[in-house]
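Researcher: Quick sanity check before group meeting.
Model: Go ahead. Protein one:
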Amino acid sequence: MARAHRFRRLRRLLRPIVHPVVGRRLPPELRADRVSRLAVPLADGVRDPGFADLLERIDDSPIHPSNRVKIYTNGDDAFEAMREALQAAQSEILLESYILRDDAVGRRFLDHLAAAVRRGVTVKVLADAVGSFETRRAFWREMADHGIEVRLFHPLFSGLWNQVFRDHRKILVVDRKIGFTGGMNISEEYGSFSHSVRHGTWRDTHVRVDGSAAWEMAVVFSEGWERTGGDPLKIPPLALPEDPEPGVGILVLDSRPFRGHHESASVLVAIAGAARRTLWITNAYFAPGQAAVSELGAAVRRGVDVRLLLPGKTDAPVVRYAAHGMYADLLEVGVRIFEYQEAVLHAKSLVADSYLSLVGSSNLDFRSFFFNAECNLVILCPDSAQALEEAFLVDLAKSEEILIGPWRARPLHERVRDGFARWLSPIL
């Protein structure tokens, strides 16, 4: 009976509508300040069947079964996989990126997209107007001349109220069967060809998904596309098989201003509450509120090995200083902090208990949880978790651990600077 009810619920939710819907009120027991009461008692933590049910309740969307997943921690490999998917496209390509540059990588993508159009494939490109501010208008006109449909999200000066709200997603969906997302923009910071980029090739994480989760990523793309005035995508409902094949379970955790941000925060708190052994977080722009310190500290007190891998080099110094303003509080509750030294760290990922992974575009800052449209994947799969754990340990070998004694002894002017930046963190 329970299985039949779950199947009916999946069928109901797999209409082409973004979830959670606009205006949804998160039930009180599922809010970020309370949901750990439901997550902590789960006998098997993130592996408990009740945890998957809890995620679905929080986000009011299904965990897609039967997917295949590939993790990329190298930009060259990720772009090559995307190139192969573009070349194999048969009917539709949907590309959404905060930054889409007219550089070596952007040019390669333009060539592949134009070739797809010549094969009869429908190609739609959505880029954020602020993120892609440096991209020349001639590049967008060239795309249009090739038959690519192009939209810019919230163009400058088109509406002052909207300028604070940005499209920070990084999504590529091919034929609604293959999807990519993560932290990588369409720009040359992530490849071996980026010798001119300051601090070398950036370190980032991306993921490829084959399966029904890619269909929902197309639905997420349609939200931003239609908001920019694009014609509505015709996406028929998706019917999952009653007896799904073995594969990876994935929750598509997406948000935009006034939709989904509370749910995203609650999912993160639930993960921290359900973790039993390890909670390893990699994040590029880390400036959360004091509640995050409390949740991570609570996990440490339950015996969880909580580690933060954060940038030692950055393209946004003020945000790094804001993170520094929280280090003392985090170290005092037992969280271990490491700063990556080899290059700019731009990844946004999490791995818990060698089973649950999260990869996407969200930073742990106010902007991602209030002002940005984001897309993340919660992946329930030991193989994907192992890949992220191995990458995390490799990164730690290229990092410096922050210890509380030396941290407290740093110069006064640094402490004042960091405290001021932390005070500014809600508007960074």
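Researcher: Fine. The other one?
Model: Protein two, sequence then structure:
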Amino acid sequence: MKIGVLTSSRADFGIYLPLLKALKEDDFFQLELIVFGTHLSKFHGYTVQQIFDEGFEPKHLIHQMIITDEPISIATSYAVTAMKFAEFWKNNVFDCVFCLGDRYEMAAAVAAGIPFNVPFAHIHGGETTLGAIDNIYRHSITLASKIHFVATESFVNRVMQLKGLDARCLVTGSLSLDNIKNMQLLDIEAFKSKWGIDLSLPSVLVTIHPETVAFEKNREYVDEVYQALIKITETFQVIITMPNADTLGSVYREMYSKLKLAAPSMVHLIENFGTQSYFTCMKYVALLIGNSSSGIIEAASFGKYVINLGDRQKGRLTSKNALNIAFDSVEILKHTKIFFGKNFFGLNIYYNDKPVHKIIKYLKSQN
């Protein structure tokens, strides 16, 4: 069975990883990785190297990124991606092609495959993020897909609203939680040796991406985040992962550089941790601040509280570890003091036993 996997960023590759390993090891499948997006951007860390480091050889490399982050650039990048993939789907046929999540470049690659009747299998469909244009892209990917591997039962209902009651859905839980269960994480010394960051110090992990619906407010939000983080650095080490290639992501990058100059010993800027190091960092820090899906999906499994900022994840189903507040420096500082170092002992609603096994079994049953 010939399987294609669309991967456009460090984020989706990390989620795919346990599934990719299983597909690679099973002779029933012929696995081909289709790599594009920020994976191939030197500006965003050239994360295709992470794919090689994990022992995979990308079969297809498709260059289509436009580096600037104004709305016209995002729209143009979507168009270029669709054009490149139109030629790709014309010349490549698969029994199943995995697509994941809600990125605009992923949606463009999938949209180009519709006229070719490409058999897409969508992971993480049916979810809602009202503060990001990704919400539209996610639903468009769902509409274009033939199979849907969703994280919870409630997302089945949303997919059926979009696709009809005969939609082919399987509840698997989140693939990324298999990484937590099975991946060997680094210890504090190994992490320090690799990154120069001492996780034995009281630390906060920050992952903030731009809001892409009300994108004009990002400059205002950046000021609030800076005022909060500069105060936090007086007491705690701040570890920042850099934002995605989204509208006005550069204003966050500029602010982080300013923060680093103001508190060089207390601030660490990381372009790309990779899955192992990111989860290691999450394991040892005392608190997460941001608006990333990682805070919604993975953090609960590490027993961490997350201060979830703004509307980017608004509408998304969350465990009880996520505390939703506005981009307000006073509120950020207040909640940091309340929840710093406090452990979360609740359930992760995205956990489901053996998601990879469920997907592999389903694929074989369809052949």
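Researcher: One line on it for the slide.
Model: The chain has a mean pLDDT of 91.
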